[in-house]
Each structure stands twice: as C-alpha cells, then as structure tokens.
Amino acid sequence: MDGGAQFRRADHVSWNSEAGSVRGHITRVVISEIEFKGYRIHATRDEPQL
Questions:
Q1: How many domains does the chain have?
Q2: Closest CA to 10 of 44, 50, 47
Q3: Residue 25: predicted pLDDT
Q4: Nearest CA among 19, 35, 17 for reference residue 49
Q5: How far is Cα 37 from Cα 45, in angstroms, rounded to an integer?
C-alpha cells in the first residue's frame, strides 16, 4: 500500500489502466492467494490486492 494508506470495502477509488482512467469501489480486500477469472492472484497481509 502506498504510504500506509488503509483501504476498506466500499471505498471509492480510481486508477489508470490500459483502457484509460477507471473509477469504482472496493468490493473486497484479498490477503491470500486466490484464482479469479482464470488468473492466479498473489496477495498477502503486507501486500493485499483490491
């Protein structure tokens, strides 16, 4: 996480993607390895995926 920021469910976020600027809200914070839509997502408590 950047600078110790704490993200939580329902937070509104925006980011840049290959398709341009994207906005949305966090639906879950992943802190362990999972498979999502055929992709393996690597996440830990120190480096969560949102």
A1: 1
A2: 50
A3: 94
A4: 35
A5: 22
Cβ atoms of 27 and 9 closer than 8 Å: yes
Q: Identify whether 12 is part of a domain.
A: yes
Question: Quick one: pLDDT at residue 2?
Answer: 52
Residues 3, 19: Cα–Cα separation, whole Å: 26
Q: Does 6 map to a domain?
A: yes
Q: Is residue 35 part of a domain?
A: yes
Q: What is the CA radius of gyration of the chain?
A: 12
pLDDT in tens, the chain (50 residues): 454 468 888 999 998 989 899 999 989 888 899 998 999 989 988 888 87
Structure tokens at 18: 């290959």
